[in-house]
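Run log, item B.
One chain of 82 residues. Sequence copied directly from the ordering sheet:
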Amino acid sequence: MSTTSEQDGNKRNPRQREDTRQLLLSMADTTWRMFVAPAVLVPVAIAGDLKFHTKPWLTILAAIVGMGLSVLLVRQQLRGGQ
């Protein structure tokens, strides 16, 4: 047995559904922009640190560069560029 409020929640108009969809897509877009660069660069840098015995300098550099790239990608997204 469902209540009236539950039934109303299931009857969103198409505009609300599209707004929700756009919000979720925007969140997913921002998420990959924030995490992919550091997640790729840091493991590569760790391997480089182990090979070249430079621990932790390449890892620190990769983390900083990855965060910088993330900032640039999110800024590009906020300005409307894809």
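Observations after the first pass:
- Helices lie at 4-10, 14-52, 57-79.
- The mean pLDDT is 89.
Flagged for discussion on Thursday.
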